[in-house]
Amino acid sequence: SLAEVFLPEEPGAAAPVGFLQQLPSYQSALRRRNAPGGGTQGDSTGRRGAEARVLEQEGGELAARPAREYPLSIAEKRKLRDLQQADTKYLSGWEQWKRTSNKSLKKVLNEVKELSSYLELWRHDIHSIEGKFGTGIQSYFSFLRFLVLLNFVMFILMFSFVTFPSIISKYGIFNSTFAKIPPQNTEPHCTVYTPSGNKGLVYFYTYLKDLLSGTGFLEVTSLFYGYYTIHTAWFSILSYNLPLAYLLATFFYLALSFFWIIKRSVEGFKQNLVHDEDQFQSYCNKVFAGWDFCITDPNAARLKHRSLQYELQTDLEEERLKRKIADRTVKEKLRIYSLRIFVNIIVIAVLSGCFYSIYRATVFSQENSNDISNMNFQANLLVQYLPSIVITLANFVAPQIFSFLIGFEDYSPAFEIRLTLMRCVFVRLANIGVLLFSLWSQISYCATDECKTCGYNYKLYPCWETQVGQEMYKLMIFDFIIILAVTLFVDFPRKLLVTHWSFKPVQWFGLQEFRISDHVLEIIYGQTICWIGTFFSPLLPAIATIKYFIIFYIKKISLIHTCRPSARPIRASSSNFFFLLVLLIGLVLAFIPLGISIAHIPSSKACGPFRSFNTSWEVVPYTILGFPTGLQQVLYGIASEAFAVPFFVVICLIMFYFMALAGAHKRVVEQLREQLVLVRFDPLFCTPKV
């Protein structure tokens, strides 16, 4: 039987028999063996008894499944359907009602699922892109749609629990009232905050500057942290703790993003494991199953031909490099390792230069952005946007240098791409961290006793959370302006030159290549800014939603009219997993500055919902003190080391168990692959041709 074939011969590596018996191939063989003609000829009663035994082995719930869901032939499905109908009359009334209800519920759910698919955002557009350019580019637009939905949910969350209660309580809607608790044991000079709102006659360009920088009239709106000064709101007899809701909403949108990304990445990880094969299987898959049947456009078909050719050439090049590495002498190894060390020193120097430039630009911008007496409109706007400009230049220049240097390190083509991408990811995400570190160094710098009593630089940053939110807002706006400007003033003119000018250098330069990885890094960079900035600017997810919504159409038009698809497309399953992995790295890195801002840096005493607390985190123990004594003891016990250490040990044991289980399943898969290779040499499976 198949179970005997699949069982390992080694006594120390016994495969789980139950796992093998759940395989579809084993179940199909079992049904064929018990089906008519699969064994000895018997009467209809014996056949029906064999089929009944199969259904009994699979359980009553599986027997209630429709016949079309079984991996059987048409004749077997008809017999199975007749058997199910004959078996229904022997069921009790409760079982019959249960089976009928399950069928009706499945039918309703399928209809609802089919209807919801028509309401899916950009469904037709993404299918059209998939049909013309393949699944690799389609995965980028699906990823962009995911970020639109994620930011929209984040906006709904922050608006519902933070912005909406503040607005209705301030304006007395629904007979609501509010209370502001002034800071306790705080010097008066720490509570002075005069927003830079516009007064008197204001020129039009001032509104434009405020719109681009988040200052002026925008600084006093619900867009930024300083607007939320309410401590408690009352709705009839219900009280609403806004500081606690603000902090919990922040934790919730981070947790929601984390688990949503994990859920989507697990699906891609399963597909990635399936495609993680050896070179022989990879070659067979490319030759016999490498074509993308979603492609209908002739240009995309030619591109797919070239990409398959490139992948085969890459595999051969990797095999050549493996033989070359195996044949290297000690002298050659010493030379290549010395060269790699030298290249990595240059990479570190480039990163250091980028970080220092961002630090100096941030310090200069913060010290001179408020000094508008000797500046005109353009100079003041340039000073305020100086950190964003330097970060954008670093994000553009550093990857070009990395792409040039990687050619000297003598890596395989696949590893070159991964290493370059990881360096670019590190540059983009680390630049945000350097910006925040520069801001915190300015915020925490205190040279006088008056400043030390406040805990932060109250003169330069009377409401430092709002000013950090303004920096995140400017990064978001400037990133969108750059994407739009590159499409309008670089891609479109390049398309016109290539199309209407036969000059050889222009034709050699060609159209702009639609590099999926570069575009993904752009939107992940913007999403990391959104995660960090939402605490300081609660409505920033709404801006991110609108931004990504517009970017979808910008990238779609650019792909169809101004760009050519990448000559190095990657598989959709692996690309989706890589996109989500990098996005998860951005989310984890966003935890660090938010954690420092919430738990370490003193909160502003002149604005915000946490001005009566030393830090934002102090609202949690303050709220717990109002709970009953028994509940307080339970919560303090959960937060104690006596609970944390055993909990950590249990989590580690569970993790090791699943790792061992995954290793066992991996060994079973390897054994099954070996059996598939040996099947063609087995005389039991090799039948001679007549």
From TrEMBL:
What are the protein's UniProt keywords? Membrane, Transmembrane, Transmembrane helix
Q: Where is this region: Disordered?
A: 28-52
Among InterPro entries, the record links this protein to: TMC (IPR038900), TMC_dom (IPR012496)
Instruction: Give the gene name.
Output: Tmc7
One GO cellular-component annotation of the UniProt record comes to:
plasma membrane
Its annotated compartments are: Membrane
Q: Where's the TMC domain?
A: 463-573
Q: Report whether Glycosyltransferase shows up as a keyword of the record.
A: no
The region annotated as signal peptide is none
Q: Which GO terms describe its molecular function?
A: mechanosensitive monoatomic ion channel activity
Q: Which domain of life is it from?
A: Eukaryota
* Annotated membrane topology: Multi-pass membrane protein
Q: Which residues cross the membrane?
A: 146-168, 244-262, 341-359, 385-408, 472-492, 577-601, 643-664
Q: What family is reported? A: Belongs to the TMC family.
Main subcellular location = membrane
Q: What is this protein called?
A: Transmembrane channel-like protein
